[in-house]
């Protein structure tokens, strides 16, 4: 059993996810989105389940700095911004098999581990 965590090393919620799975001795495959952007297909998997607007941190500073509240972008345009600027996402994005979660969500992580 190996969990994939997509996030940023400096993100406290990403570190919380890493800590959660390490404490439960689940093998972790961490993808730092600063070093390696998320694949469009992988982001689409999360978008299909939760919707792109749920994944975006619209109250975050990064969202505001990119002027995204004022731009009229298509979903494709927003996805491209999320790939190039992962800080606008509610991180971490976590995948264990077919189970997905986003943001700091220990309840969802616990459900993933239990199966």
Helix content: 40-55%
For the record, what CATH class applies?
Alpha Beta
Strand arrangement across the biggest beta sheet: 2-1-3-4
**Topology, number of strands:** 4
What structural class do the secondary elements suggest?
Answer: alpha+beta
Per the CATH scheme, the topology name is Glutaredoxin
Report the portion of residues in β strands. 15-25%
InterPro entries: Arsenate_reductase-like, Thioredoxin-like_sf
Organism: Deinococcus peraridilitoris (strain DSM 19664 / LMG 22246 / CIP 109416 / KR-200)
Protein name: Glutaredoxin family protein, arsenate reductase
Family: Belongs to the ArsC family.
Describe this structure in words.
InterPro entries: Arsenate_reductase-like, Thioredoxin-like_sf. This is Glutaredoxin family protein, arsenate reductase. It holds the Pfam family ArsC. Belongs to the ArsC family. With 115 residues, the chain is of the alpha+beta class. It has one domain (2-114): Glutaredoxin. It is 44% helix and 17% strand. It is built from 6 helices and 4 strands. It has helices spanning 12-23, 40-50, 52-55, 61-65, 75-84, 106-114, and strands spanning 2-7, 27-32, 93-96, 99-102. A 4-stranded mixed β-sheet has the order 2-1-3-4, with helices on one face. A hairpin with a 2-residue loop joins strand 3 (93-96) and strand 4. The chain is globular, with a radius of gyration of 14 Å. The model has no long low-confidence stretch (mean pLDDT 95).
